[in-house]
Amino acid sequence: MPRVGLSTDRLVAAAAELADEAGFEGVTLSALARRFGVKDASLYSHVRSLQDLRTRLALLVGGEMIDRIAVAVAGLAGRDALVAFAGAYREYALSYPGRYAATQIRIDQSAAADSPELRRTAEITYGMLRGYGLAEPDLTDAVRLLRSTFHGYCALEAGGGFGAPRDVQRSWDKAVDALHMALTHWPRETDGATESA
Predict the structure, then answer these.
(1) Nearest by Cα to 96 from 49, 70, 61
(2) Residue 193 forms beta bridges with which residues?
(3) pLDDT tier at 11, thresholds 50, 70, 90
(4) Staple partner for 88: which of 72, 122, 142, 143, CB 3.0–4.6 Å?
(5) Phi, psi (5° rounding) for residue 73?
(6) Angle at 190 between CA 184 and CA 191, to 5 degrees
(7) Is 58 buried (19+), middle (13-18) or exposed (0-12) by CB count in 10 A?
(8) Cα–Cα distance, 27 to 174 (Å, whole number)
(9) Please, what is the Cα angle at 106 between 65 and 44, to 5 degrees?
(10) What sign has the CA pseudo-torsion 60, 110, 149, 15?
């Protein structure tokens, strides 16, 4: 019988707190059970497995992150939207490294299809990129470029990977400017062929 006061939402919220305290890898069913003073088995009334818990966590924090990005980009287009999007992304990644790590896991397609958080993420991201006149399949390619650039930069910055004396904010600004130029002059794909914009 489920413990009174314990729910899936409470467990996932606690997992988000735990991720910030102990890192994403520290989010385990045992650690969460200890947090609530229950046995591991008590959690299975609310989550199916560790993977289920981590998927729910990824969706929760992905929703938090895209909500912040949506506020930042509201009413903006082109370079201004890109700068705001990038800044909100970086701020979340650096402020909540444990939660942010959860957004990088691969999510099962059945869970992804039913996720309002992932739909909202796609709407905001693709909407911003459509401001550059992109359409599929170029939109998917551009999303992958942005994600890999933002994630790579934030991961290196968070890990102290930038040792040169150059200010990391200035380098970030240059990287976002370079992305703007790449998106503005995107080599669009038409009927299987690539042409310069």
Answers:
(1) 61
(2) 190
(3) very high
(4) 72
(5) -90, -5
(6) 165
(7) buried
(8) 35
(9) 90
(10) positive
Which two three-digit tokens encode residue 170?
Answer: 């200035």
Position 15, amino acid: A
Q: How far apart are CA 145 and CA 138, in angstroms?
A: 10
Give the pLDDT score at 80.
97
For residue 129, pLDDT beyond 90: yes
The amino acid present at 82, given as its one-letter code, is L
Average model confidence (pLDDT) across the chain: 91
**Cβ-Cβ contacts under 8 Å for 119 (sequence gap 6 or more):** none
190: β partners: 193
User: How far from 74 is each of 24, 68, 88, 122, 142, CA to CA, in Å?
Assistant: 30, 10, 12, 15, 20
Verify cis geometry, omega within 30 degrees of 0, for the bond prior to 137.
Answer: yes
Distances (CA, A) of 13 to 55, 99, 104: 13, 11, 18
Q: What is the pLDDT of residues 24-57, one digit of tens each?
A: 999 999 999 999 999 999 899 999 999 999 999 9
Amino acid at 101: A
> What is the value of pTM for the model shown?
0.89
Could you tell me the CA-to-CA distances from 118 to 114, 138, 173 in Å, in that order?
8, 19, 27
Contact 72/87 with Cβ under 8 angstroms? Answer: yes
